[in-house]
Design brief:
UDP N-Acetylglucosamine Acyltransferase, domain 1, 10 helices, about 270 residues, 5-stranded parallel sheet, 15 strands, serine acetyltransferase, domain 1, disordered N terminus
Length: about 270
């Protein structure tokens, strides 16, 4: 297969949908390099006409169960994508975020196919739409499956923007009334939680461009200001001003960030 010619994937695909073009080109290359993966790559990517079709297929294959088979799960995901095209716009932005920020990511195919932080985030996006349509039981099914499969627990009612990187993913918890704005990066073990049994708006609001280190815990209805940095292992109980770095247990301001966008630089040094 000649993978360097984008015309193999349809007219002007690189201009119409560059992320999908990158995913397909990498998949074709890997199918040649690793014949044992060829069937998987063709079924998941190369035989799919659009990004949306590939993503619905891939998620359904992971999420489906004996009682809720993949074919029905895929039908639901496809219906959600058709009703809310912005979900797959956000998914593309998430792939770009991972590719640009994670040094372990070698192609746009990697997060799409292998990275469970990406998979959990896209499963959440489907669940969130279902939750807003008052289909709470089905939304909770998607949440439960994501938690079991990927070790990431995002409540369907939470609000999460686009261009998000959840690196590694294991142990991430995002509560019901939490909000994560565009362009945020977080590592494994991050908790955006409440402080107890209070009701109502009780979870953190993480603004644009924030970097949250591994194992950080942020509790309560507090704001983490734009482009702030939360050091690994910190426990944050009070609001964090924009552009500041906090560290410790309990976390305290230890200085200002040394770059405009901590989430992009991924520099966790304090």
């Amino acid at each position: 297969m000649e993978v360097s010619n984008a015309a193999n994937f349809g007219p002007d695909i690189a201009e119409i949908d560059p992320v999908w073009s990158h995913v397909r080109t990498a998949a074709a290359r890997e199918a040649e390099r690793e014949p044992i993966l060829a069937s998987l790559l063709h079924a998941t990517v190369l035989n799919q006409p659009r990004f949306e079709d590939a993503l619905s297929y891939h998620l359904a294959q992971k999420i489906g169960t004996v009682e809720a088979p993949a074919i029905l799960v895929r039908q639901t995901i496809s219906e959600v994508f058709a009703a809310a095209p912005d979900i797959c716009v956000a998914a593309r932005a998430d792939i770009v975020a991972v590719y640009e920020r994670d040094p372990a990511c070698k192609s746009h195919l990697d997060p799409f196919l292998w990275f469970k932080g990406f998979h959990a985030l896209q499963t959440y996006r489907v669940a969130h739409w279902l939750w807003r349509q008052r289909r709470e039981a089905l939304a909770m099914f998607f949440q439960s499956r994501a938690s079991s499969l990927f070790g990431v627990d995002i409540h369907p009612a939470a609000k999460v923007g686009k261009g998000i990187m959840i690196d590694h993913g294991t142990g991430v918890v995002i509560g019901e009334t939490a909000q994560v704005d565009d362009g945020v990066s977080m590592l494994h073990g991050v908790t955006l939680g409440g402080t107890g049994k209070e009701t109502g708006d009780r979870h953190p609001k993480v603004r644009r461009g924030v970097l949250i280190g591994a194992g950080a815990t942020i509790l309560g209805n507090i704001e983490i200001g734009a482009c702030a940095k939360v050091a690994s292992g910190s426990v944050v109980l009070h609001p964090v001003p924009a552009g500041c770095t906090v560290a410790g247990v309990p976390a305290k301001v230890v200085g200002c960030v040394d770059c405009p966008e901590p989430a992009l630089s991924m520099d966790h040094r304090v």
